[in-house]
# Entry
Amino acid sequence: MNKVSTVKIVIAGPRGRMGKEAVLLVKETENFELVAVIDRKNDGGNLQDVEGFAGISAPIYSDIEKCFQEVQADVLVDLTTPEVGMHHTVTALQHGVRPVVGTTGFSQDDLKELEQLCAKTGLGCIIAPNFAIGAILMMKFSQMAAKYFQDVEIIELHHDQKLDAPSGTAVKTADMIREVRETKQQGHPNEKETIPGARGANIDGMHIHSVRLPGLIAHQQVLFGADGQTLTIRHDSYNRASFMSGVKVAVENVMKLDVLVYGLENIIE
Ligand code: NAP
# Structure
């Protein structure tokens, strides 16, 4: 039997809510090894000395360049913020390390730049606005439904500490619907907002509404309407562990890729 080689992983944002789960995932997965973490605090220390990580040893770097110069790594898992996440992703590719990016809020220009960098370096990179397998299915089912229902509104609901709106998942869902739906300006042609923003964001005539409340994690419903009927497709993530099976799939698959893949739905059949 072929022995599966160990994937050496660096995690950026280990003290964050997603980062913590990712550290546990790597620790518990056979053939995954945590070789370093990128953290703007605790530079030069070891993760096992940070509260909540007893027994999990990995050097801590604040400078990602220095990390990749000193540590041999295969994959960077980035779970930070769009500003620093883009810098991390570019730096990883420049050092021959394949990025798996869960950080949301990357712009179209960022994606274009990363696509070109992947082509130049021949390295794979996965950017996944949503790692939850159920959310991937929600997007796929929505794309199927959009062939038959042209009118659609997306309501995404997240915890109140989320930095970007609309969510990456909502934008990705709209993009997937756009691939099969003819552009349509929805609602009444003379519709007027008496309070600006009342109709939400507008992508190709589709409206996206962002709800932010404490108590929520990550939820989305896609509502389709036609004469005399509506169809609602909904997904709920109740904790951050719900995203980890997707992170595992992404890490395993990025090792086989030599291009940028945006969205886990392009990996999962
Ligand atoms: P979080 O709890 O706020 O964690 C973010 C982490 O990034 C923190 O550890 C933070 O460190 C670190 N960070 C911020 N700025 C940094 C910098 N300049 N340099 C280095 N580290 C920095 O957020 P979260 O809920 O874990 O989410 C992280 C990202 O994943 C967000 O973009 C979120 O939208 C996304 N997300 C993706 C999915 C998915 O399925 N793809 C699911 C949930 C969330 P400090 O503690 O020092 O601020």
Remarks:
- The chain has seven helices and twelve strands.
- The radius of gyration is 20 Å.
